[in-house]
Amino acid sequence: MSELNPYFEKVVVITGASSGFGCQASLELARRGAHVVLAARSEQTLHELASQCEMQDGGCAALAVPTDVSRREDVQQLFEMARRRFGKIDAWINNAGVGVIGRFDEVPIEDHEQVIRTDLLGTLYGSYEALRYFRRTGVGVLINVASVVGKIPAPLYTSYVAAKFGVVGFSDALRQELKAEGVDRIHVCTVMPMAHTTEFFEHAGNYSGRESTPIPPVYDPKVTVDKLVQLVVEPEDEVITGWQGPVFNTFHKLLPGAVEKLMSARTQKTQLEDAEPMLATSGTIHEPSSA
């Protein structure tokens, strides 16, 4: 059966599984017959999602592991529980992420720090556990979710940009290590989404004085979810999701100043001029959503 269905009984760890890309990818992987290990801070939401995954047609098993990826010991426990429950790990998706919007010096430094801990250190912790295991088994797929702003910066997202630039460079360096050693059965994939209609902006910290608004163009989350699912069995080094992303990236290499000026103007107009007024909030940076 596994020859006909490459997902059958694959074991996939997914952080940030309680919402957005992580939630939808978990359900789709389960539908295709993969076992899923679900990690996020919201325990009740995770258990509800695990039940939904096990109700899919693929006949999978789902394990919910409440995890704050900014805590190294939580990620270590996630790895141990996944390995103990299923005996193996085939793919690990570092998807957990938070963001904060606002002028750099008007955002509390504690919020900036937590964005870096979650988005960059969380990716580092997950990658460390996954790659050490893949080194022992000789095979595996690590998927790190960055952002197009990890290639092309945007104002008002400074710590998020810093973290995602870090994820892109970190993943590049991991691939260099593996390729230099001739390791060809362990893959490191970097996914860089454009803006999508997920809960990211609803959950983001925001000190801009205006409602959190995605920078256009904005895409259906299915664009990125489909790619995350595909990479589990068909890994690629780097992927920008949202068809205009690769175009922007190419132009940025040729005309970086012009593209960054355009990105700045779009962000300023969308976030500071067109959005409705809103009170300052730290969003779900420090605590999970109660919804």
From TrEMBL:
Its EC number is 1.1.1.47. GO terms for molecular function: glucose 1-dehydrogenase [NAD(P)+] activity. The keyword Oxidoreductase applies. PROSITE patterns: ADH_SHORT. InterPro entries: KR_dom, NAD(P)-bd_dom_sf, Sc_DH/Rdtase_CS, SDR_fam. This is Glucose 1-dehydrogenase. SUPFAM superfamilies: NAD(P)-binding Rossmann-fold domains (SSF51735). It is an enzyme of class 1 (oxidoreductase). The lineage of its organism: Bacteria, Pseudomonadati, Planctomycetota, Planctomycetia, Planctomycetales. Residues 281-291 have a biased composition (Polar residues). PANTHER family: DEHYDROGENASE/REDUCTASE SDR FAMILY MEMBER 7B, DEHYDROGENASE_REDUCTASE SDR FAMILY MEMBER 7B. One of its GO terms (cellular component) is membrane. Residues 267-291 are annotated as: Disordered. Pfam families: adh_short. Residues 10-197 form the Ketoreductase domain. Keywords: Oxidoreductase. The keyword Transmembrane does not apply. Belongs to the short-chain dehydrogenases/reductases (SDR) family.
